[in-house]
Every structure is written in C-alpha cells, then in structure tokens.
Known about the structure:
The protein has helices at residues 15-29, 83-93; strands spanning 2-13, 32-34, 43-48, 51-58, 73-81, 98-102, 107-113, 119-125. By secondary structure, the chain is an alpha+beta fold.
Amino acid sequence: MATEGLNHFNIAAPAQLLAEVRDFYVDVVGLEEGYRPDFGIPGHWLYADGRAVLHLMEVEASGPAPTGVPGFLDHVAFTCRDLEGTERHLQRLGVDYRKHDFSDFGLMQLFVRDPTGLGVEMNFTV
Length: 126
C-alpha cells in the first residue's frame, strides 16, 4: 500500500449553501469550476492547476451527507497505489471498507472511516 498524496476533499451541503461555498472557493480562493461526472447527486468539482481538488455535493437541508457524517465535511481522499495490496492490508487489520468500481473513469475507490467517523476515500488508477 502506498499513499501518494491528497486527492481531494468533499463538502456536502444544501443547495443554497452549496452555491455560496462554490462561489467562495471560486471567487476568494481562485479555484475553477470544471467537468464533473454524473454520480446521480447534484454537485460541482472545483479545480486547481488542472486537478479537481474540491468536490461539492448537494444534500437535503434536514439530513446528513450521504455517507452519514454530521456537518458539512464529508470525506478526505488520497491518491494511492496497489489496490490489491491495500485490500489485503485492510482485511488483515479487520477494517471494514466499501469498494466502488468507476473503471469507466479509470478509477477504483475504497472507502473507510477514521475513528472520528470521517470518511476516508482511497483512489486507485486502473
């Protein structure tokens, strides 16, 4: 298992607040809105130097993010290598994980939770 670096962070919020968040990161921080695949959840991807570093997704005002995390910070994501070795490592440690196949985008993802409940996403190029 090898972690190469931070991939992105994700903020989940109701539509009106999400628009304000998007505008803040574009107007104040200088990120640029760009391509976002259709994940079936409204949202935006904001880019820095050609990389989608901030993912925004819309959630209902009355509920938590889709991953169940309270608040607005949903997860952090890392770019990783060695998918099979990482899965074996997680299994040896007894860590529960979910696997998402986005091979259409050249991507496989593993999701775990840290001790605080924050989602941790590991992205592998396939």
